[in-house]
From TrEMBL:
The lineage of its organism: Eukaryota, Sar, Alveolata, Ciliophora, Postciliodesmatophora. GO terms for molecular function: ATP binding; microtubule binding; microtubule motor activity. This is Kinesin-like protein. It is found in: Cytoplasm, Cytoskeleton. Residues 467-501 form a coiled coil. It comes from Stentor coeruleus.
Length: 516
C-alpha cells in the first residue's frame, strides 16, 4: 500500500521536575499507539466541577517514555530512501513553547535529535550507492518575517520567485558536507547562533521558525531534500493581543504562517491544483516541500501539564485539522456532538465526566441573569486584517475587461490574491472558533431553558417572568445563528472568489509568459 503523503503524529513530553514541584498534574493519557485523551477540568453553568475528556486519534501517538530514536524509526527513517528517489522529505515540529520541539528535532547533549539520525542514514546510503550525489546543508531562521542565515552571521536573506515559479533564497549559504561529524559541526555552529538570537533572550527562539535542510545534489541539480522545521511556539500567535506593537505584529505573522502551513499541507494531501504557499514567508520558502513528489511528517509536541491544558488542546486541534480532510466522510467527532455537549445520558464511552458539586445556582438566579445580560457569543466579532479592509475590490480582477498586459499587472493581481488568501485563512480560523462558541452558547441557552421550564411547572410560579426569559433566550439563539450564518456566507463567497481569481491568474500568467 502506498504510504500517505502526510503523517501527523503526537509526542507527549514528561512532566518536568519543576512542574512536579509546583503540583501540576499530568492531564494527557496515551490510550493506544494512535489515540490519546486530554482531561480538562471544567465548570458547568451551575458551577459544578467536572472533568471532560477530549479524545483524539492520530497516525501515531508517542508517550513520555518514547525516545527520539523510536520516533525517528517510526516517522522519518522509512522516508529517507525516498529522498534518494527525487522526493522532498519535510518534518515539522509544532507545539507551544517548552513542549519539546527542539528536543525532538535538534536533541540535547548526548541525546541525538531526528536530524542527526537522518544524516547518519543519508551518509550511509551515499557511501553505499555511488550515484554521484553530494550532500549540502543550509540552516536559516524566519524571525519577525525576515530570513536570516544561521550559517553566515545571521545575514538577512531574500526569497524570490523566478520565471519558472521556483522560489530561491538569494545568498543562502549551502555547506558541502561529507560526514555526519562535518554536519554536526556546521549545525552546532548554527544552533549556537540561534540561541544567541537577536536579544539573547530565550524567549526569542520560540518566536522564530528554524529551517534545517540537507540537499542531495547531482552537480548543481537538486536530486532530493530532507528538511527539519522547528516551528515558532504555537501560542505566540496569541501575542496579537499583547500591548507591545512589535510583539503584536510578530504574533500576527506567526499566526498567519501557521495557518498558511496548515492549508499548504492539506492542499498537498488532497493533490490540489493550487497550493496557497504565498500565504506567508514560511510557506513561500518551503514551496518545493508542497509541490511535486513530497512526503511530510508533522510532529505535534504537547506538554502534559494541567497548567497548559488550553495550549495542548489547541495544538491537538491544529494537528487534527491538518490531517482531518484526508478522510472522506469523517464521522462527527464525539467531542463535538451536541448530545455529548448537552451531557444527555447517551454518553460516549470515551468521554469521562466526574461530577463534583461546588455551588448550586437557584433557577430564579438563572432567570434574573438571563433578563439582565443575555449571554451571546463570548467572542468579539471578527475584524478583517487592516491590510485588507475592502475585500470586494479584488473582484475587479474577475471582470472580463481586466486583462494582464505585462508582468507588472500580474504582480499586482498576485499581491491582491495573496491578500485575499490571508483574509481567507484568518476567516477560516475565526469561523471554526465562532462555531465552537456558538455550540457553547446554544448548550448554555438550552440548559437555561430547561431550568425555567422546570421552574414554571412549580405551583405559584410567575408566568410573566417565564415568558420574558423565554423570549430573550429565543432571541439569543436567533442572534447566535445569524452571527455564524453571516460568517459562513462571507467565508464561502471569498473562497469562490479566490478560486476564480486563481484560475484566471494562471491563465493570464501563461499568456503573458508566452508573449514575452
Ligand atoms: N521527551 C522529552 N523528554 C525529556 N525532556 C524533555 C522532552 N521534551 C522536552 N523536554 C525538556 O523540556 C524542556 C523544553 O523543551 P524544548 O526546549 O525542546 O521545547 P520547545 O518546544 O523547543 O520550546 P521553544 O519553542 O521555547 O524553543 C527542555 O528542558 C527539554 O529538555
Amino acid at each position: 500500500m502506498e504510504r500517505p503523503k502526510i503523517q501527523v503524529v503526537v509526542r507527549k513530553r514528561p512532566l518536568s521536575a519543576r512542574e512536579i514541584r509546583k503540583s501540576q498534574t499530568d492531564i494527557v493519557s496515551v490510550d493506544s499507539i494512535t489515540s490519546l485523551t486530554v482531561k480538562e477540568e471544567k465548570l458547568k453553568v451551575d458551577l459544578t466541577k467536572y472533568i471532560e475528556g477530549h479524545n483524539f486519534i492520530f497516525d501515531h501517538v508517542f508517550d513520555q517514555e518514547v525516545t527520539n530514536e523510536e520516533i525517528y524509526r517510526v516517522c522519518v527513517e522509512p522516508l529517507i530512501s525516498a529522498a534518494f528517489d527525487r522526493t522532498k522529505i519535510t518534518c515539522f515540529a509544532y507545539g507551544q513553547t517548552g513542549s519539546g520541539k527542539t528536543y525532538t528535532m535538534m536533541g540535547e547533549k548526548n541525546i541525538p535529535g531526528l536530524y542527526i539520525m537522518a544524516a547518519e542514514d543519508v551518509f550511509k546510503t551515499l557511501n553505499k550507492k555511488s550515484m554521484g550525489l553530494k550532500a549540502y546543508v543550509s540552516f536559516y531562521e524566519i524571525y519577525c518575517n525576515k530570513l536570516h542565515d544561521l550559517l553566515n552571521e545571521r545575514q538577512q536573506l531574500f526569497a524570490r520567485e523566478d520565471a519558472k515559479q521556483n522560489v530561491n533564497i538569494i545568498g543562502l549559504k549551502e555547506w558541502g558536507v561529507s560526514s555526519v561529524e562535518d554536519l554536526m559541526k556546521v549545525i552546532d555552529f548554527g544552533l549556537s547562533v540561534r540561541m544567541v538570537g537577536v536579544t539573547g533572550a530565550n524567549d526569542e527562539s520560540s518566536r522564530s521558525h528554524a529551517v534545517l535542510q540537507i540537499s542531495l545534489k547531482n552537480g548543481n541539480k537538486l536530486h532530493g531534500k530532507v528538511s527539519f522545521i522547528d516551528l515558532a511556539g504555537s501560542e505566540r500567535g496569541a501575542d496579537t493581543i499583547d500591548n507591545c506593537k512589535q510583539t503584536r505584529i510578530d504574533g500576527a505573522e506567526i499566526n498567519k504562517s501557521l495557518l498558511a502551513l496548515k492549508e499548504c499541507i492539506r492542499a498537498l494531501d488532497q493533490d490540489k491544483r493550487h497550493t496557497p504557499f504565498r500565504g506567508s514567508i514560511l510557506t513561500q520558502v518551503l514551496k518545493d516541500s508542497f509541490v511535486g513528489r513530497c512526503r511530510t511528517v508533522m510532529i505535534a509536541n504537547v506538554s502534559p501539564s494541567s497548567l497548559n491544558c488550553e495550549h495542548t488542546l489547541n495544538s491537538l486541534r491544529y494537528a487534527d485539522r491538518v490531517k482531518e480532510l484526508r478522510k472522506v466522510n469523517k464521522p462527527m467527532k464525539k467531542e463535538d456532538s451536541l448530545a455529548d455537549a448537552l451531557m444527555l445520558p447517551r454518553q460516549p464511552s470515551n468521554t469521562v465526566r466526574q461530577t463534583k458539586p461546588i455551588v448550586s445556582v437557584p433557577p430564579q438566579e438563572i432567570i434574573k441573569s438571563t433578563l439582565k445580560a443575555p449571554s451571546l457569543s463570548k467572542e468579539s466579532s471578527h475584524s478583517a486584517p487592516s491590510i485588507f479592509k475592502n475585500p470586494d475590490v479584488i473582484a475587479k480582477y474577475l471582470s472580463p475587461n481586466w486583462q494582464a498586459k505585462s508582468e507588472k499587472d500580474l504582480q499586482e493581481m498576485s499581491e491582491g490574491h495573496e491578500r485575499l488568501i490571508n483574509l481567507i485563512l484568518s476567516e477560516e480560523e475565526d469561523l471554526i472558533n465562532s462555531h465552537r462558541n456558538h455550540i457553547d452558547t446554544m448548550v448554555g441557552i438550552v440548559k437555561d431553558e430547561m431550568t425555567i421550564l422546570h421552574e414554571v411547572d412549580q405551583p405559584g410560579s410567575d408566568v410573566d417572568e417565564y415568558i420574558s426569559a423565554l423570549k430573550i433566550m429565543l432571541e439569543n439563539k436567533l442572534n447566535s445563528i445569524k452571527e455564524i450564518q453571516n460568517k459562513l456566507d462571507t467565508f464561502t463567497a471569498h473562497l469562490k472568489t479566490e478560486e476564480e481569481i486563481s484560475r484566471k491568474f494562471y491563465k493570464l500568467q501563461t499568456e503573458v509568459l508566452d508573449r514575452n
